From TrEMBL:
Protein name in the entry: Uncharacterized protein
Record localization: Endomembrane system
Keywords, sorted A to Z: Membrane, Transmembrane, Transmembrane helix
Native species: Didymosphaeria variabile
Topological type in the membrane: Multi-pass membrane protein
Residues forming coiled coils: none
Amino acid sequence: MDDLGFHFFPSLLLSLDALLLSPPWPSSPVNPRASLISLISSTVIAFLYWFWIELCYSRNGFYPYPIFSLLNTPQRIGLFAASGVAMWAVGAGLRWCYRVINGIEADPTLECEEDKKAR
């Protein structure tokens, strides 16, 4: 039940908040490289978390999750790289769900070149 309180319920409630209670998102990203920036940011956060876990291990003598004691360093790199990509994919999925549920409010000041050419 603790895992539900630490992971599931916060994820569920924050997703519902983003989908149902957030102000409108622009129809296109302000920065054309927003997707790449988001992917890099997510992966950096995942690796910073890994460094934090290793610091905790160095002080406590055990990992907070048993899987880390089963993996070697290359496997951990793969795990945290995949976690960063998964975090990015969940963010993209939430943005897609937001568009499906709420639609899009077009803001001409935020349109990208492709949107302008489509007209």
